[in-house]
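Changelog note: in this version the structure field was regenerated for every chain. One regenerated record is shown below for reference.
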Amino acid sequence: MIAIDRLAINSDDQQKTRLREQLLLIFVLTQDGVRQLTVTLDFERDTFHFHQRANYRFEAIAAVRVRQADNDERTFELALVNGQEIRVRVSPEAEEIQQGENPGAVSDVMLDAAGLHHTLHVLEGIAAEGKEWILQERRRGQDRTRNLKVTSLN
């Protein structure tokens, strides 16, 4: 899942930051493919906006990446073999950066909190190896668990 927060700054004396809205891209892995749901949660209006639901087979994923511009703006991109592209800006907007904050560092923290790093790991593996990547990842996890058990017994 990727969760992109949009913040609002209150104009009171304390300058409190609060969540205005959140864009959610949810990727559910099934036995043969991916189900994707894109929604926006608007906390100012207490509304839920359904944007898109998509399904595609593992073999349909051509590439996944995060592009970073010179100004630290980052964009998540998922390309399918049929030419369809899913693009979402995943870096904080300029007004969300507080005075004295490093935009790159803020972006890194937001991306980590949004779950982007794990999502990229999974989708990049699927794009490179297809369905076989999931089986290999499961085996690697079982090997790590087995090694932990052996280590803890010694």
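Spot check on this record: The mean pLDDT is 81. Strands lie at 2-9, 17-29, 33-42, 47-57, 61-68, 74-80, 85-89.
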